Amino acid sequence: MTPTDQLVPVAMVNYADVPGINHSLLKYMDVSPAVFIHNRLAELHKKRSIPLDFGIKLHMLTFERERFHNLYACGPEGVKQSAATKEWKEACALEMGDTGRELIPAEYAPYGGATWAKLNRMDKVLQAGVLGGWLKGDVLRETVVTAELEGVKAKGILDLVIDHDTEHPAVIIDLKTTRDHPTTANVLRAIRIYGYDRQLGLYAALYQAATGGPWPFVTMLFISKLEPYLTREVVLPEVVLRNGYAKVQEWLRMFKSCTDSGEWPANLPSMSVSLHSMSRDIFEGGDDANTRGG
User: What's the predicted TM-score (pTM) here?
Assistant: First the structure.
């Protein structure tokens, strides 16, 4: 499986420097163009949130193990992470000076942050499940995809792509962490709150445009941050993805119009959630079907 100029391993680029608008910012067009502009400027100075930092580190450990160990090291046992802890600051400075790696606390981090032990326990569960089998094939891992959609350059990061060719539908796998157990209710709530149908609808459209192939299948793999780290595979039907992407197309057209005119009004576009009435399309089994533990 060979990357193209529109499918590039994330390790080879600085994602922030890749031209294009991503879902994380584009979603603010659903409030108003003025709010979009405000958040676009705020992103330049925004500190990475604890949940986002946790997810990024787990993704890297799972999909880019060598890169993870080149960038991070386990903190000393018994030393807690805290800006006010002299021992922690000294350990970080020593590790950075010796190897250039950032320390991750061994067992404890404030506010539910990532720890070396928890990341490795969750990765062990993932590797022992269906993801471990997928990773053994000819796949694309952590890949930046770019394409022009509705006259706008857009981008995203695909966690895993299997069966990648231009004749048959590929399968995009998207890993999500959740603070709750991945029951039907919690999965649907997460999809609604975070707009995963729109994000992954955009990713499917980007992949199709970048490859010239058919519309891909998309599977979400949820893993809980709570022991025993239950996992759940959720296949998003094409109708859900296309409905989500239809909303993204509205945002893209609005973005292009504002860019062309130079005006970013504070109007409130009509808001809709395409997934609210589609739970039957996603879940046909019982509440805990396809749920696994570590």
Answer: 0.86
